[in-house]
Automatic annotation (TrEMBL):
GO terms for biological process: galactose catabolic process via UDP-galactose, Leloir pathway. It comes from the Bacteria. This is UDP-glucose 4-epimerase. Keywords: Carbohydrate metabolism, Isomerase, NAD. Belongs to the NAD(P)-dependent epimerase/dehydratase family. Residues 6-254 form the NAD-dependent epimerase/dehydratase domain.
Length: 331
């Protein structure tokens, strides 16, 4: 058992809450720090919740002084690509300046270990697939740039200030807690699998496949879907790993297997046992035809391997959460 304390910014959100559960199961004391603008207080079940904003230096100082964390898990970010194009200022303010404020207050408090929730969006349009950590990083939207700026800060702070960190670059986070305690709830929902489930179960919310003319096996885009439970397990391994390491270390998190959007729609229809065919829409600007991770580094150095990221498990856990949420809303 660890006995150490992790303070999780954005721990009331989708990936953050799943990671809080995984750290608690591994014996860590978990403290969630979240402004609840996009997270949910009911998802905080494994330790105290501090309602605060990462742009608020005083709130961070108080949290560090009270809980004296050994490690920071940093998930507090806006993550809608289209919104970032329309309102880049809120992405640079929250994701980039907020992260700077967090690092500044970590230094003041003497906290020197951090796990950063990063993204494959820092790579932009891939030059080769699968994508490894040495692939050129050149984002195509403000969301990706706001995350890459934080990675650059982390690399520089490691050299200048001895602040050691891991950046975990997710591919497509999907699925929900296998025990049904927490799940996915975004407003608006932009992830393919919950949208496909809603479309399969209701004619009122048809699922749209953006693009059917990509150079892929069925014409729809290929993505690397990774179960959020596997992501959470990787964070625990990375947290234990960085406690004994120095420097800045990026890792891809994905399965190395690609699934087309139309294959997702078919899997959802089969598992839901209800089919309303998806609509075919035009490609979205900047959508790469294929994003697949090379996660060999995470396997080699962290000892991490996805265990529950087959598409059927991802869809079944997402569907179970969808039905549980719908039943709760009907009460």
């Amino acid at each position: 058992m660890s006995g150490r304390t992790i303070l999780v910014t954005g721990g009331a959100g989708y990936v953050g809450s799943h990671c809080c559960k995984a750290f608690a199961r591994a014996g860590w004391n978990v403290v969630t720090f979240d402004n609840l603008s996009r997270g949910h207080a009911e998802a905080v079940k494994w330790g105290p919740l501090i309602v605060g904003d990462i742009l608020d230096a005083s709130a961070l100082d108080q949290a560090f002084a009270r809980h004296r964390p050994d490690l920071i898990g940093h998930f507090a970010a806006f993550a809608y690509v289209e919104e970032s194009v329309e309102q880049p200022e809120i992405y640079y303010r929250n994701n980039s300046i907020g992260s700077f404020t967090l690092l500044d207050r970590m230094r003041a408090a003497g906290v020197s270990k951090l796990i950063f929730s990063s993204t494959c969006a820092t790579y932009g349009v891939p030059e080769q697939v699968p994508i490894d950590e040495d692939h050129r990083q050149w984002p195509i939207n403000p969301y990706g740039w706001s995350k890459l700026m934080v990675e650059r800060m982390l690399a520089d702070y490691a050299v200048a200030h001895g602040l050691d960190s891991v950046a975990l670059r997710y591919f497509n986070a999907a699925g929900c807690d296998t025990e049904g305690e927490i799940g996915e709830c975004h407003e608006p929902e932009t992830h393919a699998i919950p949208l496909a489930i809603a479309g399969a179960l209701s004619r009122e919310q048809p699922f749209t496949v953006f693009g059917s003319d990509f150079d892929t096996r069925d014409g729809s885009a290929v993505r690397d879907y990774i179960h959020v439970g596997d992501l959470a397990a990787a964070h625990v391994l990375a947290g234990e790993w960085i406690m004994d390491r120095r420097g800045f270390h990026p890792f891809n998190l994905g399965t190395g297997q690609g699934t087309t959007v139309l294959e997702i729609a078919r899997a959802v229809a089969r598992i839901c046992e209800a089919e309303h065919p998806p609509r075919i829409g035009p490609r979205r600007a900047g959508d790469p035809p294929m994003l697949i991770a090379d996660a060999a580094k995470a396997r080699r150095e962290l000892g991490w391997k996805p265990a529950i990221s087959d598409i059927d498990t991802i869809v079944r856990t997402a569907l179970a959460w969808h039905r549980l949420s719908a039943a709760g809303a009907a009460l």
